[in-house]
Structure formats: C-alpha cells, structure tokens
Write a structure and sequence with these properties.
The structure holds two protein chains of two kinds.
Chain A lengths: L3 E4 L2 E5 L4 E7 L6 E7 L5 E8 L4 E4 L2 E6 L4 E6 L8 E8 L8 E3 L3 E6 L1
Parallel strand pairs in A: 2-11
Antiparallel strand pairs in A: 1-3, 3-8, 4-5, 4-9, 6-7, 7-8, 9-10, 9-11
Chain B lengths: L4 E3 L2 E4 L5 E6 L6 E8 L3 E9 L14 E5 L5 E5 L8 E8 L9 E2 L3 E5 L1
Parallel strand pairs in B: 2-10
Antiparallel strand pairs in B: 1-3, 3-7, 4-5, 4-8, 6-7, 8-9, 8-10
Classes of the chains: A mainly beta, B mainly beta.
C-alpha cells in the first residue's frame, strides 16, 4: 500500500526566498508523481507531473525532481511571492500504475510573507 | 475547453438521507476518479473508472457508498443513509491515460454537510 509523507507540514518565509518542499513515498514502482496546489476553500490545481522516466520537470519558477530509487520527490520554488501562499500536495499512484487512484500526502501549508 | 465540473457545490442533508453527487469530466477523458477530503483524514481515494473496465472500488469506505459512470462520461456518487462522518468535500478528477501520462485534473468539489 502506497504511503506518502510531506515535510515540512508548514512553512513561513519572507518574500523572495527560494524554498524546497519534500515528499517521500513507500512504493517506488510508480509510473508518475504529481504535485498540486490547493488554495483555501478551493479545489486542486495541478502544478507538475513527473513521469517515472524523468528526473525533473519545470514550469516557470517551479521545478520538481523525482528519485524513484530513494522514494523521494522535491518541489523547488524560486523567488517566492505572496501569491504562492497555499497548501502544496504531493500524490503518487496508489498501486504504482499509470492511470490509477492517487495517494496524497497531508500537504505543506506555505505562507509567503510580503 | 471546459474543466471538470461538479454539482451541487454545496449540499446539506439530514442524517439518514441519501445524497447524489454529480461529476462531468473533461470531454474525451476516459478515466474518472472520486476522492474525498475531510479535516481528519486528508485526501482519500474512493473509486476509479477507466473506459469500460470494472471500476476500482478499493477506496470506498463502506457499502453505503456507490458510484456509476454512464456512457463513459458523467458519473454519480451516491451515499445512502448518510452519517455525520460522511461530512467532507467530495472531489472528482479526470485524466486521459494514453496521453499526458495520466495527469489528473480536479473539479471544484461538492461540500457535503450531514446534520
């Protein structure tokens, strides 16, 4: 059974800092891993999907890495802005498949101070 | 194009009543998923439909929960004899596994409150 853990649970930093959010998963036989953002009272917005054959995926100021062998993924946010304040969720397929229900971590609640 | 839509956005029901929640996936997406998000449990997978295959019901918490997907498109999640612990936000997602590596796109959710 897939288990996903995110560290830290909460993070508060001044605007402009670069930061790293961590995710670990127990079943490394995954096809992909997805990072989401959730704003209060809203649904989930997909940020990045990394396929198992990839090591990194970039979108704007966001960069996600994947190390299947160690069961880890990181989300790097460059030059953070107050608008980045949200909860960031990491999710991996619950049985390792490509089209599969996701197991989510409990998220990192991020606050960027202006 | 349009994203995943869900209705209603909010539902308040009395304990013991049945409720139906609806999900319209992104057009052309063959895979559809239901999740729920509650304060105590975080985000939990409930059920997954892929094309005409039998659904993966491994996440359904009890036999009071069921889901259908008609015509490979719209899905309905039904909760019978609702209990207070069913109060949560129910989220639907869809994906196209053969392209985009199965990236899941989520709807805005239905907030269910059982009184």
């Amino acid at each position: 059974k897939q288990e996903v853990t995110q560290i830290p649970a909460a993070l508060s930093v001044p605007e402009g800092e670069n930061l790293v959010l961590n995710c670990s998963f127990t079943d490394s036989a995954i096809y992909n891993l997805q990072w989401f953002r959730q704003d209060p009272g809203k649904g989930l917005t997909s940020l990045l999907l990394i396929q198992s054959s990839q090591r990194e995926q970039t979108s704007g100021r966001l960069n996600a890495s994947l190390d299947k062998s160690s069961g880890r993924s990181t989300l790097y946010i460059a030059a953070s802005q107050p608008g980045d304040s949200a909860t960031y969720l990491c999710a991996a397929p619950h049985s390792g498949g490509g089209a599969d229900g996701l197991t989510f971590g409990k998220g990192t609640h991020l606050i960027i101070q202006p | 194009g349009a994203g995943v839509s869900q209705s209603p956005s909010n539902k308040v029901t009395e304990k013991g009543k049945d409720v139906e929640l609806r999900c319209d996936p992104i057009s052309g997406h063959t895979a559809l998923y239901w999740y729920r998000q509650s304060l105590g449990q975080g985000l939990e997978f409930l059920i997954y439909f892929q094309g005409n295959s039998a659904p993966d019901k491994s996440g359904l918490p009890s036999d009071r929960f069921s889901a259908e997907r008609t015509g490979g498109s719209v899905s309905t999640l039904t909760i019978q004899r609702t209990q207070q612990e069913d109060s949560a936000v129910y989220l639907c997602a869809s994906s196209f596994p053969l392209a985009g590596a199965g990236e899941q796109y989520f709807g805005p959710g239905t907030r269910l409150t059982v009184t």
